[in-house]
Amino acid sequence: MCGVVGYIGPRQAAAILLDGLRRMEYRGYDSAGIAVLNGTGVKVHKAAGKLANLEREVSDNLPSGTVGIGHTRWATHGAPNTPNAHPHTDQSGRIALIHNGIIENAGAIRKALLQRGHTFTSETDTEVLAHLVGELYQGDLEEAVAAALREVDGAYGIAVISSDEPDLLVAARNGSPLIVGIGENERFVASDASPLLEHTRSVVYLDDGEMVILTRDGYRVRDLEVKDIDKPVNQIDWDLATIERGGFEHFMLKEICEQPESLANTLRGHLLEEEGTARVSGLNMTDDELVAVERIIITACGTSWHSALIGEYMIEELARVPVEVEYASEFRYRNPVVNERTLVIGISQSGETADTLAALREARRRGARTIGLVNVVGSTIAREVDGGTYLHAGPEVGVASTKAFTSQVAALALLTLRLGRLRNLSILQGRQFIQALTALPAQIEQILAKTDEVKVLAERFFTGNHALYLGRGVNFPAALEGALKLKEISYIHAEGYPAAEMKHGPIALIDENMPVVFIAPRDAVHSKIVSNIEEVKARGGKVLAICSEDDSEIERLADATFTIPQTLDLLTPILAIVPLQLLSYYVAVRRGCNVDQPRNLAKSVTVE
Ligand code: F6R
């Protein structure tokens, strides 16, 4: 999703902005631009497509100036072309503005501005906002921005500069994240921490409805009326090395390979083996409050929704609390039955997904207690929920979520243990679950050691444009996630299904050209899934099975197998997903796809 970056300080802004945009490329975008105050006016450069196009455009002629804003745009209003790229200027050309989000009443404002003689060069809602700020400008940029935002409905994270006030940068947020970076005589603003890290670790997280006024040596946060707001300064502990590729060809591969460590980090400090339980102190709930929970709703989007489904299996099986899993985008507009005895869990890697945030807000409004399982520290969801736990998976830069998924499932396992031990789960069952969890990082290492096998399977199986992923029980969500990984980065149409559902429709697709990936570990439904493999083979389908070691039955049936170590049934998705992530990765690489930034996708979906 769009990336916003702004700089004011003693250094040349353009290079800092371009570097910042480069670090935010992972968010997903389709055009880019910068604007710099050059002493006489605002110098704007924009280009459609990748950042390299913009860099080419400015390479001989880097605009000079120490205040500027930069943007990567993920198209919402209008095509991804150069005129629609940000920054946009007002009618006078002296104010430049960048924006992440959607201005919902832009149509009406545009119409009114047209009647008052404004002319527009793009189809964007952002240009409308820039013109509105310009029209309200009477020598005070801060006031003009506040006045314009008071007229606006929708979501925004904006940054604005004016050549009439060359020592100022104004930014504001409502629904789209913004972080202020505080350096030595310099200030930054950005959509996330990645462009800031090489300059400073001291940050201020803006909340909805807040504006910040940045100068070289100061900053002030206020609301859209007149009230100043005191904000704490936070320290970020991620370092630059953790967001760089470290020798891997792609971030996705690096992040797949980091899973032994990221998973261990998620579990670290939480497991109480002696008592067979987990300590999740961030929940901010007493034992009595946890026991009083009658129902759990888990809400999320995409990959996080898949981990939520696995959570449903775990919590119902071991803690015996009824669980429903809801797409956040559906939950937020339904009339859900929620009360103070409902625990609503939001799962989000970024902590900024607009639908998940809105679903949690709605749940809270209806009296439920909300908790978040979130990766990005200081993100909006993490700050708004009543409690929760961070995943500690480290920054995930590849657009396709990998290590966050396994960490989400691990965090759900911690929650399951905590809830289960307060109910019917015995100490011995708890200890057994902990031992299995503790073994997972080393078991993932074993799988990663066989990466070359996956490479061969990727060559052999995925030659067409379709694939089916089947699993049963807790591995049905793993099948959904495997299929999502393949489609999003290789553009092969892939579907995940509960294996037994296949005969209610998808079986019609089976022929010798349809690769079918089965997740078939030796678990409680093993004999059932063997029957499903037989059904596919009987129709000439090509079967690749992810199965347990020494499973001669499946080895006999399947065209190829990839074995995973034995674990508890409920934890098998954490192991089964690793070869599926690798498979998607190698298929996408072979097809020449942009693995880390797949077309049309955004890392952090901050619009609904
Ligand atoms: C898929 C993927 C997306 C995200 C979804 C939710 O690989 O990355 O499906 O899982 O957009 O994002 P978060 O977890 O940040 O809320």
Architecture overview:
The protein is α/β, with parallel strands linked by helices and 608 residues long. It has 3 domains: 2-242, Glutamine Phosphoribosylpyrophosphate, subunit 1, domain 1 (4-Layer Sandwich), CATH 3.60.20; 245-447, Rossmann fold (3-Layer(aba) Sandwich); 450-608, Glucose-6-phosphate isomerase like protein, domain 1 (Rossmann fold). The chain contains 19 helices and 27 strands. The strands form 5 sheets. An 8-stranded antiparallel beta sheet has the order 3-2-4-1-10-9-11-15, covered by helices on one side. A hairpin with a 4-residue loop joins strand 2 (31-37) and strand 3. Helix 4 (125-136) packs across helix 5 and helix 16 (475-490) runs parallel beside helix 19. It is globular. The N and C termini lie close together (11 Å). The relative contact order is 0.10. Bound molecules: fructose -6-phosphate.
